[in-house]
Amino acid sequence: MQPIILYQISSSHFVDKVRWTLEYKRLPYTTVAFNVLGNTPGLERAPSNMQKLVPIIEDPNNNNKFISDSTQILIYLDEHYSDATNQLFPIALKQQLINYCIRLDSSLGLYARRLGYLQLLNENPTILNVIIEERSDDGWKSYFKGIAKCCIIIARLRIHRIKEDQIYEKTENLLTELTEDVRGKEYLFSNQFTAADLTLCALVRLLKTRFLKSNLTDMSKASI
């Protein structure tokens, strides 16, 4: 089997969701860093009408098929690479699980991303160049790239509107609801690990503030 190609921004929790799925299913894969400000090698092969937002996978085992959107990628991987021991969307619960994952993506996933980037921009905006491109440039080039990416992210993710959009309150309310969902349960659905559990674990990662701060500090030191 040829390795599946994962186009990624390594710090993305949506990418974590796909990466963890590949590892859970023990599928070989390679990664390509997504270039926010330019062309990403390999994506020139993707359909012109495909949304170029990470995560994206390319499957060389299936005519180099491209899939974007984390939940759609999980569905694809489960339909093509599953057995009784690692199925994430059991047939009896499939549509219910898909709906749940999409709901988490469009609420918790987006809230956590905005809050995570807000903290990052407050602490060290120039480190965006290291996180997004997965390498460190010295000097003014890295500095200006970081500033440019800050502007793109602020506009695209509406970072400047977090207070007006009540993202803190919405996140707190959703986490309270999710806490009730998991209370007293080993898994969210049935008695087995499913895509819902994996999605929740991946998307909540950015809200672990102490973990995020310690990792950003380490990355910042490494980039100096």
UniProtKB/TrEMBL annotation:
InterPro entries: Glutathione-S-Trfase_C_sf (IPR036282), Glutathione_S-Trfase_N (IPR004045), Thioredoxin-like_sf (IPR036249). This is GST N-terminal domain-containing protein. PROSITE patterns: GST_NTER. Belongs to the GST superfamily. Residues 2-85 form the GST N-terminal domain.
